[in-house]
Amino acid sequence: MIRQLTLFVLTASLIACSRELLANGSVSTSTGDTAMMTKTGIAIKKVSLIAREEKSSPAGVKPDRDRDIGFASIFFELENQRPQATIVTLRKIEVCNALTGFTQLKTEQPQTIELKPLEVFSNHIQLTNKTGFRGFGKVKAKITLQIGDRTETIESSSVDIEKH
Questions:
Q1: What domains appear along the chain, each with residue ranges and CATH number?
Q2: What are residue 149's phi and psi, to 5 degrees?
Q3: Quick one: 93 exposed, middle or buried, by C-beta within 10 A (0-12, 13-18, 19+)?
Q4: 2, 10, 123, 156: which is deepest, by most CB within 10 A?
């Protein structure tokens, strides 16, 4: 219950913090805390990642070899700054080792999002696996999306894996 409350508080904080607008219309390649403005009029807001690994079964739960061990929660926000609707397609979302680039979790199922004029769209995506996180160090999330005929990739800041 404390974990759920913590996740809720973190989610609310992330959404509140990501309301900052990009002051100019230039393309920024920075990651994490700032927005990236595309030439298509879509501001890609802060991308955040929470990664955790639960190798031990929760107390009172019978061990199960087929349970999920690696978990990633990816939060991001898009803003349509144009007065007309725009289609954005999420092409790929992956969590990889920040040092080696080795992919730990990923989904390549395209997801289409229709952004209404001047709409702010927030989303939260959960990825899981049955092996946990291999290797060492921090991980980061990468989101590849297509806006019109342009493909953009934005990354979260590198984060430590919470191990339980």
A1: 2-163 (2.60.40.10)
A2: -100, 10
A3: buried
A4: 156
Helices and strands, number each (H, E), in the chain: 1, 11
**pLDDT per residue rounded down to tens, the chain (164 residues):** 555 444 443 444 433 333 332 222 222 233 454 567 767 889 988 899 999 999 988 888 888 888 999 999 999 999 999 999 999 999 999 999 999 999 999 999 999 999 999 999 999 999 999 999 988 889 999 999 999 899 999 999 999 999 98
**How far is it, in rounded angstroms, from Cα 87 to Cα 128?**
27
135 dihedral zone (left: phi>0; alpha: psi -120 to 50; beta) = left
Q: Are 92 and 15 in contact (CB under 8 A)?
A: no
DSSP code of residue 6: H
